[in-house]
Amino acid sequence: MRKIISLMHISLDGFVAGPNGEMNWINVNEEIFDHIDKRIQKSNTALYGRVTYQMMENYWPTAGENPTASKHDIDHSRWYKNVHKVVLSKTMKDAGLTNTTIISDNLVDNINEIKQQAGHEILLFGSPSATHSLMQQQLIDGYCLLINPIILGQGVPLFAGVGDKTKLHLLTSRQFACGVTELNYSVDRE
């Protein structure tokens, strides 16, 4: 069975965005881009909430074609165009969307069906509302947390309303030169 891994930038105090959705505190550089680009190449499915999907769709399909595109923009744009996208949304329709599936109801059944399909891990990018919904249904199998060395004090929490206690098992950790620490956890279902 395929696993859903939540890939998320997070502040030291557990927020994924500022109080108004700000993400200007996220620390990224070429070292992180290269690392994430290698990681995503192992996945053929990306999972998004509607807001994150629309943000991605407005940028990534053509980002690699810009004459001043960075290596990361070129690589990620190529991957984004080829990866199967799954979007959790009650308002979007899938008419005319290329390589995209919209899940608007029966979340557990539809996600479990996707997890049964052939392929590699399913990466859940950002999307705090979608992440919360999947957490509540115990559909997330692991977390790749990019912990930024900042305390926001307030904002959109990653672990809000998740229900029962969830035990995690640390798989790997990595320190980046910019101060970001990556922690990879699996969810302990036992």
What does this structure look like?
The protein is α/β, with parallel strands linked by helices and 190 residues long. Helices cover 28% and strands 29% of the residues. It contains six helices and ten strands, in the order E-E-H-E-H-H-H-E-E-H-E-H-E-E-E-E. It has helices at 30-40, 50-57, 60-63, 71-82, 107-116, 128-136, and strands spanning 4-11, 15-17, 45-49, 84-88, 100-103, 122-125, 142-148, 156-157, 167-175, 181-188. An eight-stranded mixed sheet has the order 5-4-3-6-1-7-10-9, sandwiched between helices. Strands 2-8 form a two-stranded antiparallel sheet. A hairpin with a 5-residue loop joins strand 9 (167-175) and strand 10. The longest helix has 12 residues, at 71-82. The chain starts with a strand and ends with a strand. The model has no long low-confidence stretch (mean pLDDT 92).
Keywords:
8-stranded mixed sheet; two-stranded antiparallel ribbon; RibDG_C; 10 strands; alpha/beta; 5-amino-6-(5-phosphoribosylamino)uracil reductase activity; DHFR-like_dom_sf; 6 helices; Dihydrofolate reductase; Riboflavin_Biosynth_HTPR
